Amino acid sequence: MRTGVLILTFVIAVAFFISASQIIAADAGAQSVSAADRLSIEQSRYSGQWKGDDLTVEYSYSKDQGQMDISGNIRFASFLILGYTRLEDFRLGAIFLDENGRVLKEIGLVANHDAFDLIPFNHRINLPPNAVFMAFSYQGKATGVRRGRTSFWFYPIH
Predict the structure, then answer these.
(1) Which of 19, 93, 108, 133 is most buried, taking the most CB atoms under 10 A from its CB?
(2) Distance between CA atoms of 62 and 57, rounded to whole angstroms?
(3) 128 C-beta neighbours (distance < 10 Å), count
């Protein structure tokens, strides 16, 4: 009798796992970024600035033959610089999107900086086919003597 219950439990678990995997795969294909958070990358060269609530990214890129050279600097908002003394687990990412804002590829541009100094970055990226937009994402933690610890992030994918 116990063997039957174990087999039935196993079969139910496998069925649940397969169903969950299909749902996750369907949702992953539907991930997109709203129009307000998209930056066009249709020009062969561009320099600009993107402002988030916690930081500003000054960036420039040039594209050729399916590749992009992207470089820039990250400047943190004054409330972070003046209110906290240490930056932890900071990451800046770029998200490449098709003409409908659907996610094609995510890459990391900066990882693990520990100070609120100007942070430079410079990367050569293989662009996914059909990429016409880009968006930035970031996350980090800040600590300070008087303010304690806080987390900050921006992740435009929904």
Answers:
(1) 133
(2) 16
(3) 13
